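Propose amino acids for all 88 sites.
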């Protein structure tokens, strides 16, 4: 069979997205990866706030805020990962 009859066959694995559906899929995967990076950055920020709150005695409220935000961000990331079917 000639390749031009089946342009989306499995033999062309590294081709660029040529259909609108593939393009949208590639964009959504990129957005998902960016979202996971943002969640990771937020987790690091919340962890720093938590440690800073425990180190500075007068800022115990900051530790509490850090713990709450860390847990909320971790739960949100886990739910988003499960929603998109990205289980390990």
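Proposal:
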């Amino acid at each position: 069979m000639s390749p031009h009859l089946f342009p989306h066959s499995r033999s062309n694995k590294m081709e660029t997205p040529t259909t609108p559906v593939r393009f949208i899929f590639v964009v959504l995967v990129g957005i998902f990866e960016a979202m996971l990076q943002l969640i990771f950055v937020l987790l690091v920020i919340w962890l720093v706030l938590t440690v800073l709150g425990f180190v500075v005695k007068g800022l115990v409220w900051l530790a509490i805020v850090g713990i709450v935000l860390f847990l909320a961000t971790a739960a949100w990331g886990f739910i988003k990962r499960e929603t998109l079917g990205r289980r390990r």
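The helical segments are 20-55, 60-83. The chain has a mean pLDDT of 77.
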